[in-house]
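Pilot study result, target chain (829 residues):
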Amino acid sequence: MKPSMILIMERAASMFLLFTILNFHKIYAAEFGSISGSMFLTEGDTLVSMTGVFELGIFKPEGSENRYLGIWYKKIAPQTVVWVANRNRPLPGASPLVLRVSDPGSLVLFNSQSMIWSSNTTLTSSNATAKLYDNGNLVLLDQQEKVIWQSFDYLTDTLLPGMKLGKDFVRGIEWHLSSWKSNQDPAPGAFTWGANTSVYPENKLRQGAMVTFRGGPWSNERFTGVSVFSTVLTFTYDVVVTEREVSFSYNLENRSSLLSRVTLNSSGDFISWAWVEESKKWQTVLSLPRDICDTYNICSAYGKCNVDLTQQSCTCLDEKRFVPRSKRDWGMANWSGGCVRRTPLDCKIGSEGFIKYSNVKLPDTQNTWYNTSMTLKECETKCLKDCTCMAYANTNVRGEGTVCLIWLSDLIDIRVFPEGSGGRDIYVRMASSELGKEKKGAPIKIILPLIFLGLLLLGVSITWFWCARRKRKYADDMAEEGKSLNVSKGQEEAMELPIFSFSTIEEATSNFSPENKIGEGGFGVVYKGRLEEGKEIAVKRLSRYSNQGVDEFKNEVICISKLQHRNLVKLLGCCIQGDEKLLIYEYMPNKSLDAFIFDKTQSMILDWTKRFNIIKGIARGLLYLHQDSRLRIIHRDLKASNVLLDEDLNPKISDFGIARSFGGNETQANTERVVGTYGYMSPEYALDGIFSTKSDVFSFGVLVLEIVSGKRNRGFVQPGSDNNLIGHTWSLYSEGRSMELIDSNIAESCRSSEVLRSIELGLLCVQQNAVDRPSISNVILMLSGEGPLPQPKQPVFFMDKEFLVADFSSGTYTGGSVNGITITEVVAR
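Predicted structure:
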């Protein structure tokens, strides 16, 4: 017999013997929740915790053939994995694995060929035991029941009650979350959530080395950067700050009856979940970041972010005492320069004091000093004696206790919270002239400010008169030359936006060279340009030969200049000169979404993860328009060509020419001038001119189905059927064949559960009656949730020609959409 054959037979015999011996240990492990020897693992073989909350075993992520050793909830479906051992070394195939406690005290996973993963621990004595606890912690114990290794020290993407964030300086272990690379790959992804332990600790969300969100300084009561952490759960926090350890952990007060977890997903969302037993699903408690004000350091030094503002999100900390470093940049919503003090500090004892600002997220603690046994008054004295101290605060929620935190540099990353929702007080250093204090027996100090105030008012009046005169002269000149846009006084005030000269834009676009043309819409051409300082821009040029679009131009300037969100395109300025009307935007290098999903070559770039992130980004942008801005904005023309993609393929909603704003409690309106794009318009809007936030939700639903399928709703052709894309989707859904809808380019990368959820959500959004459609806030919850969705009703679907005959026969059709261009006017019945 050949030596190679003998070797194969010996290996087979040894594996058979090993399997027979280890079956005993497998039974022992399953019964008592521990491993004292070895355990054979195939799919279905698990180690269960004592009361059956968690189990350890081999799992395969949905859509992947790779296998991993992990821990998940035993009684929850679908499978919810909370920890992964071999996340950097997946195992293809289905060969048996062995999990073994080896001498001298290490937990090892191996197959017949090599070691796959190890706890990398050693003991001086043998007989170690591995146990899975009911809190989800896998531990390795010595003979004296002392923990020598635990999975809680090696977090993946999930934070469970009792897990820590921070650092153990004695053992050199750092506790932080790291996202999965994708839903199919648990390898460490781009995002991490962990503590900055070199100064006063706080949690930060990072993408690579870049900070994208900051949780705020630690407190024993809640995250200081989150106004409300939970409305349904009661948490207790444990903060340890010593020379040996800096750590933060949380627990549930009613932990015995509720399950809670916090995850960091592959898109960089930090989400708190609670298990709802009645509905058998995970309910989102909190998702971060929430809005534009959660963007790290968006307002720069001494700037504060407030999502309740209508004109912009950033203002100076105190507009009486601080001014923008660059007024021009600030007016263009470029807040990178931040704010500076009107009166510089001179660091003279007795000549400076502090102003209290309430309900704020405390600034970044990167350059701070702290003391855990100092009162607030002692903290003030300490700060006043140090010329580098810019502010001080107590980190406790109610300002009580003995934690003194002092900032030794400019204050950055501040946001304002609504009163009573958990913000902190901070005391900012000011020159004495800014304190506004009056002293008895010193009338001169009262008179001088009054004189100064009088002179100031006189100066302001003269300046106002001079500016008003110049404005009137300019308007007269424009009227004489026939260049007026007929802007009302209210609109004129609303159109406060940086004005570019026509020559500047002409030079930036090489005299509107055809080579710089990047798109064309219903009201003109879009060009790429480069300003003199090197900034790339996109220029929308209203056609001078068109009798339409002036109102849309004014509307877009007035509307979008007040909107700031990471999923909305940024308007940098405008230009009005004679017949020329130009809008200047930030440049989006990847152009529009339709250039990707409807192109056979480009669509290959968008795998399912990117498409799902685009869907969620569009939803977040709509949420800001519908809910988070003071004036509720209805876009009315949401479609693939109006979603632009930046260099990282993040979506940004654009083209607000026909958007409408609501005030107060308005939820819907009626118009005789129906504008929009066929294939995306809701039935009630197309037929009766009634539009609301649910009209945008309908357009969003169409867009979701287009992103999933890679097909246009308008002009969709299915052999043997007259259905459009909505009708085709409904047919597949009704027959349980929804997966046949997906673009072939994402078949390998998609996660079926997310795809099916997106299709079902799309159908919910395009239901005939507006009241049946979810709000955009519920859409976001459905996208991030995992439980069952409501059953959609059969939507209205029709071919375009039938739509026009059936629904516009009694109206007057005066204009239309060609190849997706926005229609200009349809008078509804």
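One observation from the pilot: The first strand starts at residue 34 and ends at 35. A full batch analysis is planned for the follow-on phase.
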